[in-house]
Amino acid sequence: MKLTILVDNHTLIDEYYLGEPGVSYYIEDGENRVLFDTGYSEVLLSNARRAGIHLEDLTHIVLSHGHNDHTNGLRFLQENIDLSGVMLCAHPHCFLPKYDGEEFIGAPYNSAEIERITRYTPTSGVRHLSERLIFLGEIPRENDFEACPTIGRTIVDGCVAADTLRDDSALVYQNGEGIFIMTGCSHSGICNIVDYAQKVCGEERILGVLGGFHLLEDSPQLDGTIAHLKANRIDAVYPCHCVSLLAKTKMMAALPVQEVGVGMVIEIDP
Q: Which of these, 11, 24, 169, 176, has the minimum number of CB atoms within 10 Å of its CB?
């Protein structure tokens, strides 16, 4: 597997890409070309061109959840590329309306619209995109230290409700050496995601964890997360997007934390 970071909050020294508060990873897995999240704007397209990546070759789009910093790039992608043959994998709640106060923070399309644009398959369960690449679906929330708070509100079956982000999910790549976990924001809790990935894959060894962990403040949740990840002896931890400098600094004291930025490439043996 070859993963290229196309959208993140940060860029790297002497790598002249654009950054924005969002996430998008381009994944090459055999013949599959998978885009995990789409960022917020046309930055995705600009960075892909600079990296020499042809998004016209996409076979799959996977969305971690429905917030606009992960889905709004779909609009710019659709305006420039024919997505009618691209399989789109996301939780059924991903395309529900989402609001923070009066501000709309959801995806640019609803389910009916995205079904016309792509080959959309809503799934709340585990789905294999290939022999080695797995979409986890809805994540069980079982530990006692990850808060998993509601964010704004959504509309389910015509009723307004607090948004528990049931649509928050992750991708896993599995080879003979272990698993590599990719997240968007980890609203369901990065440790819950790790535990579920191990259960689904029947594999305890973790080669790496990449993504936003939604850790911003010094808190019991941050301490619990560090302890949990340390106990799992993860080879490499790549916190990005919605992880504060404070949280990264504290994690670095206990974990093999790696820098993340747009244009960075991670390769995992098949």
A: 176
Q: Which residues contact 236 (CB under 8 A, 6 or more apart)?
A: 207, 208, 209, 256, 258
160: helix, strand or coil: strand
Q: CB–CB of 74/38 below 8 Å? A: yes
Beta 24-29 vs 2-7: how paired, if at all? Answer: antiparallel
Structure tokens at 92: 């059924």
Q: What are 198-249's pLDDT values in tens digits?
A: 999 999 999 999 999 999 999 999 999 999 999 999 999 999 999 999 999 9
How many domains are contained in the chain? Answer: 1
Judged against a pLDDT cut of 90, whether residue 270 lies above it is answered with no
- Output the pLDDT for position 154: 98
Provide the CATH number for the domain around residue 230: 3.60.15.10
Q: Coil, strand or helix: which one is 261?
A: coil
Q: What is the edge-to-edge ordering of all strands in the sheet holding 237-240?
A: 127-128, 133-135, 170-175, 178-183, 206-212, 237-240
CB of 238 closer than 8 Å to CB of 182: no
